[in-house]
Amino acid sequence: MGRSKVSVIGAGNVGATCAHWIVAKELADCVLVDILEGMPQGKALDLMESTPVVDSDCNVIGSNSYDATANSDVVIITSGIPRKPGMSRDDLLATNKKIMATVCNEVKKTSPNACVIVVANPLDAMCHVAFDTLGFPRERVMGMAGVLDTARYKAFIAMELGCSVEDVHGMVLGGHGDTMVPLPNHTSIGGIPLTELVSKERIDSIIERTAKGGAEIVALLKTGSAFYAPAAGAVAMAESIIKDKKRVLPCASLLNGQYGHKDLFIGVPCVLGKGGVEKVIELKLNDHEKGLLNNSANAVKELVEALKKN
Ligand code: APR
Q: Which of 20, 128, 169, 176 is catalytic?
């Protein structure tokens, strides 16, 4: 059995950083694809030249075509425009829809058995475009947002308590936008409930900062959006699939009645293994949490409707 192959479509900030994490983890051979001539080739060669320094036996190839991506185990799709200050993720809809459909038509032909991880925004709507274009089973099409939103949430909690990020456990569910649903009642630090360690006011402000976490970075960068944490999130998902780790990660998955929703991509806890989303875990939510999740689902539904008009 040869090495696994992960292809990353879009070799911009998020895509190139995915390749960087893949090499750093010695996870798989990696193919970077972009429409810009020379750019994916240059970044891939540069990364390839870093492998002797970091002792990582990964081949990294850059290309403007999909030939080298053939039979990828995982395809991460980051191609699309990022937001600038003042823009919401939803403002990217029309442009990124076209890019997503073009890319998925190629992926469908070249890697028909791959698990596909969507990263381009607006995330949940882009998952619908990918799913419809690819025609793959629902288990093999998923979106990366919950891992990122959860990472931000955990980082803010660790910063608040001055504790190790390793000991913070929790999840953020729902769509990738202002209506996302952090779950303080399901959050613990070394087994101790968050609600026993942090006041309600501080938890509310952490939740608010989490929901606006992407905008905070956009406002600081001014020229684009976050890429280190999004790329780390996508590669964590790819790793769980390639190594069949069966990690429980919040991913955008096409629901089939779970949480009371059908045929809608939304962030829920998933078991990720060789088969992709092998299981969606249904948490018992209280009425308040259910209300928040439904509110988030409605926001995603509106965008899916808007897709039809764009
Ligand atoms: N095929 C391949 N690559 C494409 C295509 C296409 N059809 N169209 C655009 N691209 C490439 C661009 O050339 C660019 O290099 O996608 C890359 C996007 O990179 P950046 O502009 O640096 O954007 P990035 O920050 O990586 O964000 C990409 O991920 O997090 C989301 O909201 C973000 O939708 C955005 C996406």
A: 176
pLDDT at 2: 76
For 146-309, CATH gives: 3.90.110.10
186 part of the active site:
no
Kindly report the pTM of this predicted structure.
0.97
Q: Is the pLDDT of residue 308 over 90?
A: no
With a 6 Å cutoff on the Cβ, whether 14 touches ligand 1 is yes
Domain ranges of the chain: 5-143, 146-309
Q: How far apart are CA 238 and CA 226, in angstroms?
A: 19
5-143 under CATH 3.40.50.720, yes or no: yes
- Please indicate whether residue 69, judged by its CB atom, sits closer than 6 Å to ligand 1: no
Q: What is the pLDDT of residues 115-153, one digit of tens each?
A: 999 999 999 999 999 999 999 999 999 999 999 999 999
Is 213 near ligand 1, meaning CB less than 6 Å away?
Answer: no
Cα(96) to centroid of ligand 1, in Å? 9
